[in-house]
Amino acid sequence: MKKFTALTLLIAIALSLAPSAFAANVKTLDSAVNDAAAYILNTVAKPEVGSVGGEWAVIGLARSSYSVPASYFENYYKTAEKYVKDKKGLLHDKKYTEYSRVILGLTAAGFDPRNVGGYDLTAPLEDFDKTIWQGINGPIWALIALDSGNYASSRRENFIAEILSKQLPDGGWNLSGISPSDPDMTGMALQALAKYQDKKDVKTAVEKALKIKFTYKTSEGIVQMLVASAALGKSTDALVDELLKYRKADGSFSHILDSNDGNNQMATEQALYGLVAAQRARDGKSSLYEMGDINNREQITNNKDEAAIGLPGKHIGIKIVPVTLPGKTFSDIKNHASKTAIEALAEREIISGANGLFNPNNNITIAGFAAIVTKSLGLYSDSANVVSAGFSDVSVNHMFAKYINTAAIYKLVSGSGGKFNPDATISRESAAALVANAAKICGLDISKNAAEIRDTLAQFGDYTKSADWARGALAFCYSEGILDEKDLDIRPKDAVTRAEIAEMLYRLLIKAELMK
Question: Angle, to 10 degrees, between the axis of helix 265-282 and the axis of helix 55-63?
Fold first, then answer.
């Protein structure tokens, strides 16, 4: 009876203490997040592109519940956009973690990294060899960055395999690839793999890594394992307690546990996002880098941008095509007059070559040209269904079917007698007509009266050889500089070359304010 009474008393005491103890832990974590956020908002008032005073500060603040002015993130985007433009999309020729970090910062702030000043920052991560050049942190952060916004990539499986292949015998990871593993890199690897625990080999690797008992020497090592634990759905309490030992009175954090060690900006920025990861896990929110819950700042900003680009009368479906292959060129256009135009379109994957060659003097089919024009305006159809186009000679299996359908939907092409004749070579006058139709939906006035058409084309000795239906389009293209008036002849029936196509579209996009 005495034992039963004593046990009952102990249970009652435990139950009475549990709520207050839990409340204290919640209060301590929330207080630490708020103090660190306030400290960073003060010390990083104008975030730059960089590993300190940049993206990690933005991520910590954006993912926290701390009240941060929207202008803070908008100003960061403007800074990042200028940086990317100044770099012409080439953030670093070897360290591809630069792309990953900026992708994370922009995504957290609510902006789309796939179009920053016309550059797609996710595109370089498709180059597997360059991404892994700097070591295991390359594929780790590439995977985290791509998954943060669920951005399209063909390299996810490659990155997962690369991370798993670098796991050390003791179960963890480090940058050198030699045991023993360290908590920093192990935590980062686990963060990248957390989403893929349904894969047997990943689950095995994660379980092995979690058996390691690390001795922490820095606050940053604790942070990485803390973020990993939160992402994996494991308890973060012990790691939060350990991290808070590094906390300073002003809300900042030190790098090492030493009474003489002052606050450290990098340590503080990492501590904030580590604590935020724990806070989000406690509150049942998505993990630190699962950013599908980001607010609508991205959509709002993009909508404003879409409304602002181009000419006032453009079709709502037209979009600026970002640079995805910065620096792209071909060995056979080195001295070509249309080199600038060809490279500008190639950098945006509007046109392509083969085996390093562009073959500028080759011809192109009507279907191929329709594909290039629709791609240049950002007009895409998700379906290869060509029923709405009504062309009896275009099957759903044609390699350009979806582009032909899209071109028909936007009235760029019309065909003749219910046929499109997709594999025929396109003439210069037909190319001019297609470009003029594209110019019309870009907001340009393509109308010309009979006198204007005559006055524009009369300077060319062979203008009478052009078809009546093509003369208005030809006059428009010459008057707007899309075709060069310095030419002596129109050559309307000649097959248009790939270089001529690139030059026409390049000039159209500039005229339509869709390219700078």
Answer: 30
As a whole number of angstroms, the distance between CA 170 and CA 173 comes to: 9
Of 70, 140, 149, 94, the closest CA to residue 116 belongs to 149
- 202-220 pLDDT, tens per residue? 999 999 999 999 999 999 9
Structurally, the chain folds into a number of domains equal to 2
> What's the mean pLDDT when you consider all of the chain?
88
238-279 per-position pLDDT tens digit: 999 999 999 999 999 999 987 566 679 999 999 999 999 999
Query: In 3D, which of 421, 416, 377 has the Cα closest to residue 509?
Result: 377
Question: HEC profile for 89-139?
Answer: CCCCCCCCHHHHHHHHHHHHHCCCCCCECCECCCHHHHCHHHHCCCCCHHH
Choosing from 160, 184, 217, the residue where a domain stops is 160
| C-alpha dihedral sign at 131, 132, 138, 142 | positive
Residue 178's Cβ-count burial label (10 Å; 0-12, 13-18, 19+) is exposed
Task: Give the separation between CA 4 and CA 400, rounded to whole angstroms.
Answer: 81
Range of the domain at 145: 44-160
- Provide the whole-model pTM: 0.65
